[in-house]
Write a structure and sequence with these properties.
Blueprint: E1 7-11, H1 19-27, E2 32-34, H2 39-42, H3 44-51, E3 60-65, E4 67-68, E5 75-76, H4 80-94, E6 100-104, H5 107-110, H6 115-134, E7 140-145, H7 149-154, E8 164-168, H8 175-188, E9 192-196, H9 205-209, H10 225-232, E10 241-245, H11 249-258, H12 265-280
Parallel strand pairs: 1-2, 1-10, 2-3, 3-6, 6-7, 7-8, 8-9, 9-10
Antiparallel strand pairs: 4-5
Helix pairs in contact: 4-6, 10-11
């Protein structure tokens, strides 16, 4: 899994952070790990350093900042000073600098703001991450957005260009979000696109009703519907990597196996055209 090959990123959103899934990932050749400051009740960084400190140097590691402990629930802030302190704290808790720092769900603060205020807020937050990368607190920086539409409305053409744009991927993402992502990453001149949540937070009933295997070029080599859904997610939208969370080494092995399949890109294009036609009716 190198070069232009699709990359599987082990996400820790709902993970219990057990050592066995990280060792299984390494055994399978999965060497990218994604977490965030608020995961595991704001304990993700600390737990990783306490339980798998010896393994962390073997991974390229991305984490996210933007959420902070609050009264009753997490609060969202893009104050540049708070972001800088959060980035420094992440490095201390992890015992190493992350490879990539991502601005976490900027839409949470942008929604409801005027375009001018939103543009200024997003710009100052991006500058904080640019400064962190310049100062050696991370190697690259980017943005992770569950709903990128408010970012496009705020305007990004004259803002620092992120190295990574992380967005939802897969068949469960609507055509409006897929098209917004395409416009946003071109306007923002983003580097790599990473996908996330290819199963929409779960994988089960939906694949009993929908078979995505026709989107793979034959032979399918006995791949399951879940495997086909994951592999096709790299084209919905086009992404260099897709993050998926699991604590099951067997499930992770199945997803790694799916990386070897070839996607029928004309079939994906036809599917997207059909979604756009349906939207217009």
């Amino acid at each position: 899994m190198h070069g232009a090959d699709p990359r599987l990123v082990l996400g820790l959103h709902r993970s219990r952070h057990h050592r066995d899934i990280l060792t299984a990932a390494l055994d399978l050749g999965v060497t990218a790990l994604d977490t965030a400051a608020p995961y595991l009740g704001f304990r993700s960084h600390t737990v990783l350093s306490e339980t798998v400190a010896d393994l962390l140097p073997k991974f390229t590691l991305s984490t996210k900042v933007g959420f902070f402990p609050g009264a009753g629930e997490a609060e969202h802030s893009f104050d540049p000073v708070r972001l800088r302190l959060a980035i420094e704290k992440a490095a201390r808790e992890l015992g190493r600098e992350p490879d990539t720092i991502l601005l976490h769900n900027p839409e949470r603060s942008l929604t409801g703001m005027s375009l001018a205020d939103g543009h200024a807020l997003l710009g100052s937050a991006c500058s904080a991450l640019v400064d962190a990368a310049r100062d050696g607190l991370c190697r690259t920086w980017g943005v992770s957005s569950w709903d990128p539409r408010p970012l496009g409305m705020a305007g990004v053409d004259d803002l620092p260009s992120p190295d990574v744009l992380m967005v939802r991927a897969g068949f469960l993402v609507g055509i409006d979000l897929l098209d917004t992502t395409a416009v946003l990453r071109n306007a923002w001149r983003a580097g790599e696109t990473w996908g996330m949540s290819p199963f929409g937070g779960g994988y089960g009933e939906v694949w009993e009703d929908f078979d995505p295997r026709p989107f793979l070029r034959p032979p399918h080599h006995g791949l399951s519907r879940v495997q086909a859904a994951f592999r096709t997610a790299f084209h919905l939208p086009s992404a260099a990597a897709v993050a998926v969370g699991t604590d099951n080494p067997g499930h992770l092995a199945q997803l790694v196996q799916a990386l070897g399949a070839e996607v029928d890109t004309p079939a994906v294009s036809q599917y997207l055209r059909a979604l756009r036609r349906h939207r217009q009716t």
